[in-house]
Specification:
The chain is α+β, with helices and mostly antiparallel strands. It is built from 2 helices and 3 strands. It has a 3-stranded antiparallel sheet with strand order 1-2-3.
Length: 81
């Protein structure tokens, strides 16, 4: 089984990574199962997550659009519960 990776809605603030599994039979591609989608934002933690989880050359494509600086602030954690 092979895997197709799509960088959906890639912009300077985020990306949605779609993974689809498929087989090829007699020259025709057949998708198997449901697509898997993970969203990442251009924040410090989002950059760390995508660096661990996305392979090349897709990671380089995302980082090329995102540039060197995170543009999305980290959410504040409320410790007063």
């Amino acid at each position: 089984m092979e895997e197709l990776i799509l960088l959906d809605e890639l912009n300077e603030f985020g990306v949605s990574v779609v993974t689809k599994k498929y087989i090829i039979s007699e020259g025709i591609r057949y998708f198997v199962g449901d697509p898997h989608r993970v969203a990442y934002v251009n924040s410090t933690s989002g950059r760390a997550d995508i660096s661990r989880e996305l392979s090349e050359p897709y990671l380089s494509a995302v980082m090329n659009i995102w540039g060197d600086t995170p543009l999305v602030p980290e959410p504040e954690i409320d410790n007063h519960e």
